[in-house]
Amino acid sequence: VCDPVAQCSYTFNMTDDYxxxxxxxxxxxxxxxxxxxxxxxxFGSSETVTIDLCxxxxxxxxxxxxxxxxxxxxxxxxxxxxxxxxxxxxxxxxGVAGDTLATFVTNCNPVLPCADPTALTATNxxxxxxxxxxxxxxxxxxWNVEYGVAGFAQGSGTYLAxxxxxxQSISGLAGSTTYEFYVQSxxxxxxxxxVGPFAFTTANPTCTDPTALTATNxxxxxxxxxxxDNFxxxxxxVEYGAAGFALGSGTxxxxxxxxxxxxxxxxxSTTYEFYVQTxxxxxxxxxVGPFAFTT
Length: 295
Known about the structure:
The chain is mainly beta.
């Protein structure tokens, strides 16, 4: 069928359920319509032989005849690296000569499957970072990782190709947000399936209180109210009113990005107070104040 250099050896493991050989039962390995020599087991309960086959050819294992006890026979066919490519269990064939017992396509350069990683984890999770880990079940030393906000479609997330780090540290995440990640082992010649998603939630950022409240450029009716934004969000809520007012009853300026915040419409010779609160998006600081000033 082919030149010997285009052949490779397959392992044929034969078994007999009764333990007395195949009782004259022969099988043929047929490639491209050409049958090799009959193969049988003369006695005993098991025997292994080597079959040389042409590469990349559909191969049929055919019953050459019918023995007295054909149902006793069983076999496995292993490729050059020991993967099972065809098998028949005992007590499953009760047919006649010419039956096809198994079919497979030869491959003289098979590659072991790339094992899927397992046990995905997310550790050292902070407001904006996490370490993504997994257990390698094979021999891979590189992995592909994809992550994004929970529910993202694979292919649309942040993709880290061929990382050699396990765990893989990621950063730039948003606080108080649930993320998911997938991981794939890269065995070089092939890759595992993608495994995931594994979900984790970043920590809730502490929204730092503002400090150092000030009132500057005070006139009879205006003032500039300032503070130090210790969190750095650049957004604040401001409330002011006549001295002694209760929070919630004053004039509220919500979500201002001005610092200082200029206010007007004040009454001359009047003492006012104001409070300020940093807005960190997912949460807010405590209200800080009151800070008093007089027009």
